[in-house]
Specification:
alpha/beta; Rossmann fold; 147 residues
């Protein structure tokens, strides 16, 4: 069985309430449920965690080295500011897919640069809550390619 850490960064606990015109009306629980359903079709197990604290996210990445095959992460605003998260992902040496609900490249200029993208397998942005599903599918395909 494949094991995936799903990390949700700061402010994602407010999904469905915070700027729904940008981030949509789905809650974090809705997204996690959709991910679990998709994972079940691929015999994968997910552990999801949300934190508004950088150190908690880093600790989760460090912990994942002992049990996970890959990481799906929406780092929120830490995408553009956290060298520490980048270093944790690099140190974990687990295939990691970065996802964003909005198209960060079409928003404010400070959002255009991801510090994490260079140490990630790939990045999926702009598809709302479906970015998570597309990211998980890509990660699972990378880990267990479908013939």
């Amino acid at each position: 069985m494949t094991h995936i850490l799903v990390l949700h960064g700061p402010n994602l606990n407010l999904l469905g309430e915070r700027q729904p015109e940008i981030y949509g009306y789905q809650t974090l629980a809705d997204i996690d449920a959709a991910l679990v359903a998709l994972a079940a079709t691929r015999q994968a197990h997910l552990r999801s965690q949300q934190s508004n604290h950088e150190g908690v996210l880093i600790d989760a990445i460090h912990d994942a080295r002992a049990w996970a095959n890959g990481i799906l992460v929406n780092p929120g605003a830490y995408t553009h500011t956290s060298y520490a998260l980048r270093d944790a992902i690099a140190a974990a040496s687990l295939p990691t897919v970065e996802v964003h609900l909005s198209n960060i490249h079409a928003r404010e200029p400070f959002r255009h640069t991801s510090l994490l993208a260079p140490v990630c397998l790939g990045q999926i942005v702009g598809f709302g809550w479906r970015s998570y599903l597309l990211g998980l599918q890509a990660l699972l395909d990378h880990l267990s390619p479908i013939a």
